[in-house]
Structure formats: structure tokens, C-alpha cells
Design goal:
- By secondary structure, this protein is mainly beta.
- It has one domain: Beta Barrel (Thrombin, subunit H), CATH 2.40.10.
- The chain has one helix and six strands.
- A six-stranded antiparallel beta barrel has the order 1-2-3-6-5-4.
- The protein is globular, with a radius of gyration of 15 Å.
Amino acid sequence: MWVDNVIHERRIEKRKKVKIMFLIKIGRLFSGRGIVKDINQHSMRLMCPQLFKPRTTIQSNGYIGESLRVMIPSDGITINGVIARVDLKKGEGAIRISSTSDNSRWQKLCE
């Protein structure tokens, strides 16, 4: 019996591995901090156990589609996006970027 061990990449664009501290804000109810793990022009993966942790009232699909604002103080960039995926066991989430405060600075950071 033969088993296919090939992992199929779901992403269209490759991501750049980074380790950047960020601040996050979701409406008026939540603010916190975490680490950006990887980025590309249209998305980013965030590690923020404070936000993406198991809760009895919210399952992982309860996060999907929520808008949030990510601030990267070291680069002076604010990113607005929508939560696309969460991994509650790892305390991570991926966001789809809808806008940035400085597109040229963001593009340079992604290179």
C-alpha cells in the first residue's frame, strides 16, 4: 500500500518568516500584543495566545470574519484585516489584509 506524503500548499503567495512584535485591537473590547510569525502582501500569521486561545463560548469558527487592527510600532505601520483562520491549540491566527496605513512601507517589509 502506497501513501502520498506530499503536503499541498494552500497559499497562493509565499510568506516571509519574521518575528515582529505587534499590538492588536478589536473594537473597544479587546487589545493585546503578540508576535507576527510570517507575512506576505495580502496576509499575515499572528501568534497571540491572549486572543486566540480556547474559550468555552467561542469556537475557532467564531473568530472567522472578525475585523481587527494590527499595529507594528517598530515599522510605524497599522494594518486592517479580517481573521481568516485560527489555531486555538497554538494560539495563532491568520488574517487577510484589507488595508495598511503605508502601502510602500508594508511592501518593503514583505520583500
